[in-house]
Amino acid sequence: MSRGYFELADQPVLSRNLLDRDERLRLDPDYVRDSWAKARVLVVDESGRTPVDWEVDPGREFHETDAAAWDAAAGRGGRVRTRTGTDLAPEPPAEAVLLGEADGVPYWAVRGGPAWTAADDPGEWADLRAAGAFLDPLGSGLLTGAVATLNWHDRARFCAVDGTRTRPHNAGWARMCENGHEEYPRTDPAVICLVHDGADRVLLARQPVWPVGRYSVLAGFVESGESLEACVHREIAEEVGLDVTDVRYLGSQAWPFPRSLMVGFHAIADPDALLRPQDGEIADALWVTRTQLRAALARGDWAGRDDGRDAHESTDPVVLLPGKVSIARTMLDSWAAAGG
Q1: Is 80 exposed, middle or buried (0-12, 13-18, 19+ CB in 10 A)?
Q2: Where are the domains of the chain?
Q3: What is the pLDDT of residues 149-200, one digit of tens each?
Q4: Residue 85 in contact with residue 96, Cβ under 8 Å?
Q5: Residue 67's pLDDT band (boundaries 50, 70, 90)?
Q6: Contacts of residue 49, Cβ cutoff 8 Å, sequence gap at least 6
Q7: DSSP secondary structure string, 154-187?
Q8: Nearest Cα to 97, choosing from 189, 195, 211, 21?
Q9: Ordered DSSP codes for 302-316
Q10: Options 3.90.79.10, 3.30.470.20, 3.30.428.10, 3.40.50.150; which CATH number does 187-338 get?
Q11: Of 217, 220, 219, the residue nearest 203 (C-alpha)
Q12: What's the rounded Cα separation, in Å, for the pair 275 and 196?
């Protein structure tokens, strides 16, 4: 076993899914037609928001950048609010997506907004980035699948082969153009890698668009014809100038913004090697100890916070880390817990 080997302590929150995604159901016209009468439907607006019911009334509107509100929500739990299919339409709308089935209940997703029902309060609508970590497994899987698939439909209205218009097909899991060419929902794979020294230090980096103090692990998209492991080596070398060894798989998570799949790894690098942040991609990179990382984790998520300090101003750098909805946070939590 390699130095510093560890596993994810918890399942990444957006990989939780209780739905049966049986392709045969989508291809059965009788099931598709009849399922609508007993379906529960998730309504998602163009910003990826859906109404959420919390176990405890928060007493305020939630916003993605309102860190205090979302920290207060942690542990309370939430459920996405679904509708009865026939309350929205007599039959599945053309753009509706059959997400799957759970406990005998079919679940669909449609585009819409608070105006669909007079009872909806726009302040109760939340998106996946903000609410995903606090939803129950069913709701998390529903919203993740809905956002990913509806985003693809929004971007696939013309055929990539001949440019003709496409229409939904197979209960929302394909689109067919005027000349019969079929297209299917796309997923763009990306690697995300926690680089450590095999002992007690981990590498963090900051993108130029992030406020000072906000850090995460390194990530990048997989190129055509490239393996996941090769991408890890290339991306780390490009972004910070380090060669890594002992590349090990950790887990994966959908990241439908708009259609990524984050594939998590960890790898070992020499902490004494020169860091060379890539111009335009990485503003700053630094090694922190496990003790420093634990202190940063205890400060909570980075949403809405900006200490306005450079991470190098003290020997105990002020570091703010990703929220719980990201696999990056699961990876950092797990590495921090793995040490003595």
Answers
A1: buried
A2: 14-155, 187-338
A3: 999 999 999 999 999 999 999 999 999 999 999 999 999 999 999 999 999 9
A4: no
A5: very low
A6: 125, 126, 127
A7: HH-SB-TTT--BEEEEGGGTEEEETTS-EE----
A8: 21
A9: -TT------TTSSSS
A10: 3.90.79.10
A11: 217
A12: 13
The three-state secondary structure class of 337 is helix
Per the CB < 8 A criterion, the answer to whether 232 and 265 are in contact is yes
Does residue 73 register a pLDDT over 60? no
Structure-token match 């306005």, residue found: 308
Helical (H) or strand (E) element with 253 = strand 245-255
Alpha helix positions (H), 75-184: 85-88, 128-131, 137-155
**Bridge-partner residues for 254, per DSSP?**
261
Instruction: Name 175's Cβ contacts closer than 8 Å, sequence gap at least 6.
Output: 153, 156, 157, 166, 167, 168, 169, 182, 183
User: Distance between CA 82 and CA 85 in Å, rounded?
Assistant: 9
pLDDT in tens, 230-277: 999 999 999 999 999 999 999 999 999 989 999 999 999 999 999 999
- Please list the residues that pair with 219 across neighbouring strands: 192
DSSP secondary structure of 8-39: -SS--GGG----B--HHHHT-HHHHHHHGGG-
- Grouping H, G, I as helix, E, B as strand and the rest as coil, residue 229 is helix
CA dist 128 and 259 (Å) reads: 13
Task: Return phi, psi of residue 51, to 5°.
Answer: -70, 140
Phi and psi angles of residue 87, each rounded to the nearest 5 degrees, phi first: -75, -20
Cα 267 from Cα 196, distance rounded (Å): 6
For residue 56, which phi and psi values (nearest 5 degrees)? Answer: -120, 130
**In sequence order, which residues have a C-beta less than 8 Å from that of residue 180 and are 6 or more positions away?**
none
Q: Which residues of 245-277 are buried (b: 16+ CB within 10 A; e: fewer)?
A: ebbbebbbbbbbeebbbbbbbbbbbebeeebeb
**Per the confidence metrics, is the pTM higher than 0.85?**
yes
